[in-house]
C-alpha cells in the first residue's frame, strides 16, 4: 500500500457540520446544527420527479443542464433582478451550489493567486482555494452584527488578487448586504481584473421587508461575477444536490471545463421537475414569509430565556449570544449542550479568524413547529 505523504490539505479538519450532526445522532439530540429542513418538500415537486422518471428521463442529460430548466432560470433571474443571462452560454446546472463554488474557484485560481474571503465564511471556500494553489486573504467582519469594512477590503487588494468571495444572505450570521454595500464593492472593483464569486444560495430567504441585493442587479459587478444558487436550500430538498451558476459567457466557458471533468452532468429527473415547478413564481416568492414565520416563532418561544440576539435578516439561521449563561467558550458550550441537554447547534468561532469567540451559537430554524418548541424549552431552562 503506498504511503500517503504531502497532503494537499494538511490542515483541513472534518467539517463542524459533520461533527455536530454526528454528536446529535450519538446523543439522540434535537439537531438545529446542520442546515437542512426536517419537514418534507412539496408533494407537487416530488410528483413531478416521479413523472419525469416514468416518462423516461433517466439517462444522462446535457452536461450544462436541461434546456427547459436553464430557460426557466433565465426568466426567474431577469424577472427578479432585471438582468438577462443567455441560457445557452451563461447558465450551468450543477450538483448543488458547492460544486458551482468549487468549479468557479478551480477554473480561475492559479498557484500563488490571492482570494479575499470575508470571515466568518462557509467552510469549503478556503480548502478549495488552497487545493488550487491559491492563498486565502482573510478579512474579519466587524462587530456582533458582522458588517463589512470596505476600506479594509480595498487595502487588502494586491497585484496577486484574483478573486473576492461574498455571501448574501450570509451563512452563518444571517446578515444581508445592502445596495450601498454592493455599490461600494462595485466601486472598489472598477478598473480591475478581479473576479467576484457571489454565493447567493439563500436569495429567497430574506425578512422584514428587505430585498435581496443580487450581484446580478449591478452591471459593474455582474460583468465580472459568478453567481451560485441552490434549489436544495430553496425548495427544502438539500439531498437532491441541485444548483446552478450564472456568469458572463467568457467566464462560463472556463467553468464548464471544470464542471465536465468533475460531475459531467446532474440528476436528470430532478432537472425536469424543477423546470416545471419554476413556472409558478409563487413557489419561491412565498418563501420569505414562510421562513420569517419560523424565525419569529423561534424567537418568541425563547424570549424569556437568557440568550440575547439580533433577529436574523436572512437564511434560516439565528445567532444567539449566551454570555449571560456561561463564560465557557462556544465550542465547549455547544458540546455540553448536546451531551447534557440534547440540543445541537453550531459554534460560530470555528468560522472566524483565529477562532474569534463572540459567545454565539448558530441555530437552524428550518424545522417543524414541534421541533422548535422542544428546542426552545431546552434553551429557556438554561
From TrEMBL:
Membership in a protein family: Belongs to the class-I pyridoxal-phosphate-dependent aminotransferase family.
Record flagged with keyword rRNA processing: no
Cofactor: pyridoxal 5'-phosphate
Sequence ranges assigned to domain Aminotransferase class I/classII large in this UniProt record: 29-378
Name of the protein in its database record: Aminotransferase class I/II-fold pyridoxal phosphate-dependent enzyme
InterPro entries: Aminotransferase_I/II_large, Kynurenine-oxoglutarate_AT, PyrdxlP-dep_Trfase, PyrdxlP-dep_Trfase_major, PyrdxlP-dep_Trfase_small
GO CC annotations on file: cytoplasm
A molecular function GO annotation: pyridoxal phosphate binding
Keywords: Aminotransferase, Pyridoxal phosphate, Transferase
Amino acid at each position: 500500500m503506498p504511503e500517503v505523504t504531502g497532503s494537499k490539505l494538511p490542515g483541513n479538519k472534518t467539517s463542524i457540520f459533520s461533527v455536530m450532526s454526528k454528536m446529535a445522532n450519538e446523543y439522540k439530540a434535537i439537531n438545529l446544527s446542520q442546515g437542512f429542513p426536517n419537514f418534507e418538500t412539496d408533494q407537487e415537486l416530488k410528483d413531478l420527479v416521479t413523472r419525469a422518471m416514468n416518462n423516461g428521463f433517466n439517462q444522462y442529460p446535457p452536461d450544462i443542464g436541461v434546456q427547459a430548466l436553464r430557460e426557466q432560470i433565465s426568466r426567474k433571474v431577469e424577472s427578479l433582478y432585471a438582468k438577462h443571462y443567455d441560457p445557452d452560454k451563461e447558465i450551468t446546472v450543477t450538483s448543488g451550489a458547492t460544486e458551482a463554488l468549487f468549479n468557479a474557484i478551480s477554473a480561475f485560481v492559479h498557484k500563488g493567486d490571492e482570494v479575499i474571503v470575508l470571515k466568518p465564511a462557509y467552510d469549503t471556500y478556503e480548502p478549495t482555494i488552497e487545493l488550487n494553489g491559491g492563498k486565502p486573504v482573510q478579512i474579519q467582519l466587524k462587530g456582533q452584527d458582522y458588517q463589512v469594512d470596505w476600506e479594509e477590503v480595498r487595502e487588502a487588494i494586491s497585484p496577486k488578487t484574483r478573486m473576492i468571495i461574498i455571501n448574501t444572505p450570509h451563512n452563518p450570521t444571517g446578515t444581508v448586504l445592502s445596495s450601498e454595500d454592493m455599490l461600494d464593492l462595485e466601486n472598489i472593483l472598477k478598473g480591475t481584473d478581479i473576479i467576484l464569486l457571489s454565493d447567493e444560495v439563500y436569495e429567497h430567504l430574506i425578512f422584514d421587508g428587505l430585498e435581496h441585493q443580487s450581484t446580478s442587479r449591478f452591471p459593474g459587478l455582474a460583468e465580472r461575477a459568478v453567481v451560485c444558487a441552490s434549489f436544495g436550500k430553496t425548495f427544502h430538498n438539500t439531498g437532491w444536490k441541485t444548483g446552478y451558476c450564472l456568469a458572463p459567457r467568457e467566464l462560463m466557458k472556463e467553468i464548464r471545463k471544470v464542471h465536465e471533468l468533475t460531475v459531467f452532468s446532474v440528476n436528470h429527473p430532478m432537472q425536469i421537475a424543477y423546470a416545471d415547478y419554476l413556472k409558478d413564481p409563487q413557489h419561491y416568492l412565498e418563501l420569505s414569509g414562510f421562513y420569517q414565520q419560523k424565525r419569529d416563532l423561534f424567537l418568541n418561544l425563547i424570549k424569556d430565556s437568557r440568550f440575547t440576539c439580533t433577529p436574523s435578516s436572512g437564511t434560516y439561521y439565528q445567532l444567539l449570544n449566551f454570555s449571560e449563561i456561561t463564560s465557557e467558550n462556544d465550542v465547549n458550550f455547544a458540546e455540553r449542550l448536546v451531551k447534557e441537554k440534547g440540543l445541537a447547534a453550531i459554534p460560530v468561532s470555528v468560522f472566524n479568524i483565529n477562532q474569534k469567540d463572540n459567545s454565539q451559537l448558530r441555530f437552524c430554524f428550518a424545522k417543524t413547529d414541534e421541533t422548535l418548541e422542544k428546542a426552545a424549552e431546552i434553551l429557556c431552562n438554561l
